[in-house]
Design goal:
alpha/beta; Rossmann fold; globular
Length: 243
């Protein structure tokens, strides 16, 4: 699919999502940007997109609330005229050493339910136009089948669910809609990372560096432009899964 003249809806598009949005806008793709708390980031991204010559709209939506999801999709079509690409980036990454039902539900809802809701309600619109692309976000660990770190059970399971969801929706929505997932590894170091922790990450990564948000944006664009790949989860992890 050529993104020029198309419309992409990006959920939870702060930080790395801003780079993804910028790359799509540079290819002539108009944007609908949803947010729950990060309005300033969404507005800044929209302004940059408009400066690049495409339309952009900012919409507040709780990605775990089905009514809010439907409303944001309808607002996208009403404002921008169509919906061709869905980028499911809404997510939380939270350590949960002391497990309880609330923490489980929060992770599953934010990371898996959100992708499910947006996908099932965007798909009929894409099918009606004859084509579509859905790109969701998993994680390199569950895609590799390695629950390597303690204290992340709800997160790990939720991201494994995204990989499974990608496969089943690819089957459900074929042939009009291609559904794929990105499984990031060491992309951007957290601000509180120590020198020692950074050295450990580099040592455990064959390419010996952090990837950067641009690598995620390149992979999103790849999935948008491909015409014969669906149901895949691609690890963007610098070879981390090999060690």
């Amino acid at each position: 699919m050529d993104p020029r003249g198309k419309v992409a809806l990006i959920t939870g598009g702060a930080r790395i999502g801003q780079v993804v949005a910028a790359v799509l806008a540079s290819r002539g793709c108009s944007l609908a940007l949803t947010y729950r708390d990060s309005r300033d980031a969404a507005e800044a991204t929209a302004e940059s997109a408009r400066a690049a010559g495409v339309k952009a709209v900012v919409l507040r939506a709780d990605a775990t609330d089905e009514a809010a999801v439907i409303a944001s999709i309808n607002d996208t079509v009403k404002t921008l005229g169509r919906l061709d690409i869905l980028i499911n980036m809404a997510s939380i990454y939270r350590q949960t050493p002391n497990l309880d039902g609330a923490l489980w539900s929060a992770s599953l809802d934010a990371n898996a339910k959100s992708a499910f809701l947006y996908s099932i309600h965007a798909a009929p619109i894409m099918k009606q136009s004859g084509s579509g692309r859905i790109v969701s976000f998993s994680d390199w660990l569950p895609v590799t089948g390695r629950p390597r770190y303690k204290g992340y059970t709800p997160y790990y399971v939720s991201k494994a669910s995204v990989a499974a969801l990608t496969e089943t929706l690819a089957l459900e929505f074929a042939p009009e809609i291609l559904v794929n997932a990105i499984a990031p590894g060491p992309i951007a170091p957290p601000p509180n990372l120590t020198v020692e922790e950074n050295a450990q990450v580099l040592e455990a990564t064959p390419l010996a560096r952090w990837g950067g948000a641009e690598e995620i944006a390149k992979t999103v664009l790849f999935f948008v432009e491909t015409n014969f790949i669906t149901g895949e989860s691609i690890r963007v992890d610098g070879g981390r899964h090999l060690l």
